[in-house]
Task: inverse folding
């Protein structure tokens, strides 16, 4: 029998709540919002035994992406400064930009792909994508690839 781990990328909407609570406890502990496991599990409504059972097996996507190259795609409106705002958000997350490709705008929209290295990132990839989505003129965004 093969004892190697198999990883799956699954939308959190279809997972039992226990898995998202384990991730929340881990976030609280790493951010300092909770000092002890007891404090964190009480705050999210999870038993200690459930936390310890799953803690080494449940990870948010960004943790499995640390030290990887991720290619992001954006459809943006064609106006001055929008690419700069996106780059600033990436810099705030402490991701390293490897490549940027912006196509010529067609009908007022330009396609932009940015490859980043996630080594040293201080923000969840989901948080980064959300902060970029809030930039005026960003019409679409997605993660294209992960190396």
Result:
């Amino acid at each position: 029998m093969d004892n190697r781990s198999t990883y799956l990328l699954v939308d959190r909407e279809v997972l039992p709540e226990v898995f998202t609570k384990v991730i929340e406890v881990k976030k609280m502990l790493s951010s300092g919002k909770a000092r002890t496991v007891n404090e964190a599990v009480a705050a999210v409504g999870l038993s200690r035994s459930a936390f310890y059972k799953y803690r080494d097996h449940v990870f948010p996507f960004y943790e499995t992406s640390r030290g990887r190259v991720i290619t992001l795609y954006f459809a943006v409106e064609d106006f001055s400064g929008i690419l700069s705002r996106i780059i600033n958000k990436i810099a705030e997350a402490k991701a390293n930009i490897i490549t940027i490709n912006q196509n010529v705008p067609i009908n007022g929209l330009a396609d932009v792909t940015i490859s980043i290295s996630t080594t040293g990132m201080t923000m969840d990839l989901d948080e980064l994508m959300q902060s970029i989505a809030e930039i005026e003129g960003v019409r679409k965004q997605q993660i294209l690839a992960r190396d």
